[in-house]
Amino acid sequence: MMGDFFFNGTEHLDSDYERAREHYQEAAEQSHPRALAQLGRMHELGLGGPKNLKKAFECSLKAAESGFPQAQYHLHALHRQGDAFVGDHSTALHWLTAAADQRHPDAMMALAGLIADKKVANRSFADAQHLYEQCFNTPHLRIRALYAYANLVAIHSEDLLELESARNCILQCAEEIQANPDYHHSLPGCNRIHSVLLNKQEAAMSREFPHVRFRFGAAEPAQGALAYTGPKVGRNDPCSCGKGSKYKHCCMR
């Protein structure tokens, strides 16, 4: 699309927003969804011409109604701008959900946050977890998604598998934060979440195996509990916990 060429520019040519706007306008008159969405953004930001929020809304609405997810996500933001439009949160949520249903990453991340904050009816924390998981492979959202997922599990889950998954996520998140100065402020939060997850894991394991005390992944007989006196279990033998896994892949770790 020629509008993109002038909007983005090249190594040897600066962006020309006026010409980009002209080309987007021509394509928008042919009901091209992406051109409508881009033109809406230019009207909103005043790029290549005067700022016009009414036209921004009209262009974005046409693109959103045609099913273009980027426009649906943008329309969600426009509906939430109380200074420009009446704060229509139900319509904003409608368009956000529509974009998320088409796997728009930013929309999925935003919708997960609303669900986690209990601002979406008839949606569960499991729905939020699933949306966060789908954002793990989106580079600009990965750290936020890992952090939010782990925090949500730390607050609401008692499931051992979910707790372990969340602990792996927060460790990966902390590792990636170390290499990204923009997120260094989140490191104390990572430590807090990791501590909560560990404590919950220990409590869950203690409930499942009351005669064993678990601490930071290592197990030792609890005081007053009977120690195991049966035959020695080999690495490749079925684990004595009864889960069916080999000992080396289960309680030996």
TrEMBL record:
Read off the Gene3D superfamilies from this record: 3.10.450.50, Tetratricopeptide repeat domain
List each coiled-coil range: none
InterPro entries linked? Sel1-like, Sel1_AlgK, TPR-like_helical_dom_sf
Q: Name one Pfam family in it.
A: Sel1
Q: Under what name is this protein listed?
A: SEL1-like repeat protein
Native species: Stutzerimonas kunmingensis
Lineage at the top is: Bacteria, Pseudomonadati, Pseudomonadota, Gammaproteobacteria, Pseudomonadales
